[in-house]
Amino acid sequence: MVQLYNCHPYGSQQIVPIKQEPELFCCGRDYVFVACAGACKIDAFVVSQDVCEPFCSINTVGKVRQMRYSDVGDYLVAIEEKNQVTSLRAYVNWKCKSAGNSRTSVRLVGLMIEDPLNGGPRDQLDIIEMPLSDSPLCISCCPVQGDVLVGCKNKLVLFYLRHLNLHNELYTLDFERSLILHVVNITPLHIAVCAGYVAIMMEFEVLVLKLLQSPKGASKTTAHDTSGLEQHDEGPTNHTPPSPPCPLESDDFVICQRPMELFGEESRSSGISVTLESIGLTKEDLCFQVQYILYRCFSPDFSQVFSVEDTRLHSLQLLPIYRAGTPTSLEGSTATHNKEVLSLFCFFSMPHIGYLYITGNSAELISTYQYPERSQAAVLTPQFLHVITSNNLQCYTARCSAAAARDEDPYIDTTMKACPPVTMDICALRMQLFIGLKALGHFKNHVILLTKANDENITERETPKRTFSRKAGSIKYKPPPETEPGWNLYVVNSVPTIQLYKEMVEYSRKYETIRTQSSIHLLSEAHLLIRAALMDPSLKESPEKEELLAAFRESCGYLGDCYSRFNTKFSHLALPYYKMSALSMSDILKQGNSVIGGGREDYGKGFLFYLKHSLSEDLDEDLSEELAAKVLQIFSTVEPTQLPHALCSTSLKNVPPRTAMDCLQKLDTAHPSVMVTLAKAATALKIKDLVAYRTEMERHTEMMMVYGFMIEPRLLMHHMNGEIVSTELAIHLKKTQPGLLVASMVALYENSKIGLQEADLFLKVLCEQHADGDRTPQLLVDFWEALLVACPREAVLQDLLFKLISHYICRIAGRQPPDTKPLKTPEELINSCSHYGLICPWITYMVSKELLPDNDSAEELSKLQSLLCGPSFDITSVLPFLEPLEENCIASLSVSVLCVTRLGEYEKAINKLLDQCPEAVISYASHELKDANQILWWTKLLPELCSRIRHGGSENRILISALRDTLSVVSMELDLKDFLNVLPEDGSATFFLPYLLHQSRKKSVT
Q1: How far is CA 893 from CA 807, 842, 899, 927, in A?
Q2: 78 - beta bridge partners?
Q3: Which segments constitute the BLOC-2 complex member HPS3 C-terminal domain (predicted)?
Q4: Model confidence over 480-532: pLDDT tens digits?
Q5: Could you read off the pLDDT of 561-582 as tens digits, one per residue?
Q6: Which residues are CB-neighbours of 213 under 8 A, at least 6 positions away?
Q7: Domain map of the chain by residue range?
Q8: Rounded (10°) angle between helices 890-902 and 841-848
Q9: What is the pTM of this model?
Q10: Quick one: CA dihedral 14, 17, 23, 24, positive or negative?
């Protein structure tokens, strides 16, 4: 469907001052090249905004049948006919003819002058002949790389553009015939090449291919397989290939193919086979493969007339859109092609319908153009499609910028960004009357038209009957008459983008109240117009770009207004468009006061969607008291259940607390909930009403309030200017209900409402502790312990354990008391958390021998010991943390011995105990030296005790007691003979002989 509007995309027009009748023309940059009938020359005209004047004339070798200009390399390439023989030639350095220089050099492609005259390449026209084995039928130049593609019968020939450095910074151009595409049974009418893509058009068929390059040694097999597929007309069995062309032509029958549209590899079933022949010299290290992109076959359109020439396809074009910021081609023959193609579009047209595809690794139809009259030619630009009929120049909008925007940013259709859809209806902006339109061209902001006023009446033409096939050579063209008065070549200047944009915006206001969709449609067209202009890679930093950016933001604001006011299924788009407009919430509320909520209670869905999301995002913007009260009124009227959430926004911090409390009281009466209760409690704190605060906090259980905080974390914290800020409610909870605060933080973390780092930072800020402070607040430790009890994910478990171990060690080593009373005791943690293990009896025995300075230190020590006794910790990772602990106290010794034991170093642990706490060695041995480690009783502990007793000391009594317990265990576990063997040989054991004999007899009796 095409929307019709009457805008004015065309401004002034100029007549190209040609003395002879123009037969064909082409254009590019700021020039129009005209080949006149019956002349072997090309006239070049330079075009500016105000005037079109002759620039130079280029004498050709033969009569020009077709020509193309390449912006990359700044050269002309033409198919010429001389003595009924057609050939292909390129004209390089043609601008030198403007100085009247008659010097001309003619050479074959690939052959250079070895010793050019001083300054020669700069001062002479260079004609490069490109010999071909078959007559050239059509040509195309790549707008990205400057390569030339030539269409011949049954094949296409690709010439690479080369930039040659002769000497002394003298540059010239040359071409290299590098690739031949053999296309069986095809004679192309039109071809197009761009960035490795090739499009071929026959009478009623279009084929789009992609040429893939790869190193020869890398994929020879793949290349061979692909070639094999190309040589055989094989394809998916679910598609019936079209009927082969009939070899015979008859005047009594018209044979038509079945319409077909195939994408990707399915295009192989079209019956068109492509075989590659690489003949390049400089790129011999590369091999090529063909990837099928699109095949489209049509039936002739006989809706108006019965003429082959008037029903076949026309205007094949490949249009690239470049990524913004990539450099454009440089002037002269030394131009480079660094432009990066963002999106590529393929356009072709039937007489009454045009088709626009976006191509990539696959193709997709994005727009269909329905013409009210039979079209003769069309040209696609990033902003418009220009179409000519016999008497009308028509302008349609294009969806290229919308598709390219999505290629550039796949996440554009989100709450942050938006773009009008590619599928939006096409818009016809203008139909401009011209008499006898024949040909069409375009460059920059100029449309070139060729008119012949006294053309023959189309209804008087004889209708030939013929067979349709892919062979274009059988078409009999009527030669043009020798002289035909009434011709003109026009240069029509497009109006500036900003001017047309303003006109479309003004036009859209006619539909604001009567036709909502038309208003949005026109504003979307204006938005795409500006977006396409901003995608132009030649657009530099300038006042023009600033004006376009300002218009872009303005258009986003207009679209945001439309979607916010009108209740459509796309009302949610008000949010991203308002964000892209750079308008503040205050600006939107102020400009909407006269329309949105102006004494009425009907607010647009889009406006409410925008308002809710903006208030939920903690924008760094404070609404005035008046606007905050206005927002409060809107939610109270339209969506009262969102009122507690809105009041949590920092943007509404200037709202009068009494007014907020009144609104919440009404809501509580109608829709009571825990969210309303918490919002009322927070508001009561703002007005210093502690009685009301306590009343509200006692209405629900702790678990229900935790649920409320989980729904709305902003009751506890805000993000302002990149920093975390605690609310008054969070500060009050820290003083009065720290357990509720910690439980709420754990719930927020478990429900992915907050990260571990963010929670740590919040609790440090809440406790007035700098983020990088050395001392850890107790509330943060309580949070870590509570999170550990809740069994966190494995990804953060070790991190939590390290945090707690490090804290416990620092607290014990520094003897720093906690700033608040810990929420959980060691016993509670052991009973509720599997990561805290039971403390070994020998540790309890050791610690009981030393009186710790305070109870807090004892609890920290117990928690540390319990964690080390638990199953979750890798002890090797703990050792670096133990450095602050000095082993001159029993508490530190217990931790050290515990770690050594967990590592399996029992002998080292026994030595530590015997050195510093021998009274605990038996308790330790009884608990740890079991099973495989029991042998240490007599191989390590017994000899060590005997040795230490022999050397004497103040601890002999303790050691003798330990020895007695050791001998008791050893004598019960070993036979008498083995027992005697483990005793020392120096005779010191004779002192214990009576006791040992007694134990030995006791064992034999049992």
Answers
A1: 18, 12, 10, 17
A2: 67, 89
A3: 499-1003
A4: 444 445 788 999 999 999 999 999 999 998 877 667 788 899 999 999 999 99
A5: 989 888 888 999 999 999 999 9
A6: 196, 286, 287, 288
A7: 10-235+253-314+429-495, 938-1005
A8: 160
A9: 0.81
A10: negative
